[in-house]
Amino acid sequence: MGLVTPDYGLLFWALLSFGVLLFILKKFAWKPILQALKNREESIARSMRMAEEARSEIEKLHEESKLMAEKARQEREREIAETKVLREKLLAEAKENARLETQKMLDKAREQIFLEKETAKKELYATVAELTINISEKILRSQLKDKVQQQEYIERLLDEIPKN
């Protein structure tokens, strides 16, 4: 017969060898192969579960890190705001203290200037009075050097006095 249509003998021996091979495989190799496939399937399923758990754990950790970062950012912003408020308060206090100190210094300086001015006025009055007396004395001495001039001056002054 040809290559396309097999002979019955060839067919018989092919089926018999296939059956024997199938029997041997079933008797000795089928269970270990199935067991290996089952173990492999369980290993893959276990690996998949572990990978899924790891992925969910990573997502959980990622969410936690986002929450912690947000919390840290809010805490930082709150501290910055508190620092700004405290800085403004300290600046306002320092400005007020400087203003009060400046006002005290100005008041003290004004008072000192007033006292020195009054002292200078008194000294000036005393000096002017002393100079006036000295000049008047010198004028009178020069005009009244001799007895005749003194007598005439006294008479003139007496004439100017109103008579009642």
Provide a brief overview of the structure.
This protein is mainly alpha-helical and 164 residues long.
Topology (SSEs and partners):
Blueprint: H1 8-143, H2 147-160
Overview of this protein structure:
- It is built from 2 helices and no strands.
- The protein has 164 residues and is an all-alpha fold.
- It has one domain (8-160).
- The chain starts with 7 loop residues before the first helix and ends with a helix.
Overall body shape? rod-shaped
| Integer-rounded radius of gyration | 65 Å
Number of strands: 0
Sheet of most strands: none
| Element-by-element helix/strand order | HH
Which residues form runs of ≥5 with pLDDT under 50? none
Which structural class should the secondary elements be placed in?
mainly alpha
Q: What's the tally of helices?
A: 2
Number of domains: 1
Helix content: over 70%
Question: Termini distance?
Answer: 194 Å
Give the DSSP E fraction (strand runs of 2 or more residues).
under 5%
Rounded mean pLDDT is 89
Q: What labels would you give this structure?
A:
single chain; about 160 residues; mainly alpha; 2 helices; rod-shaped
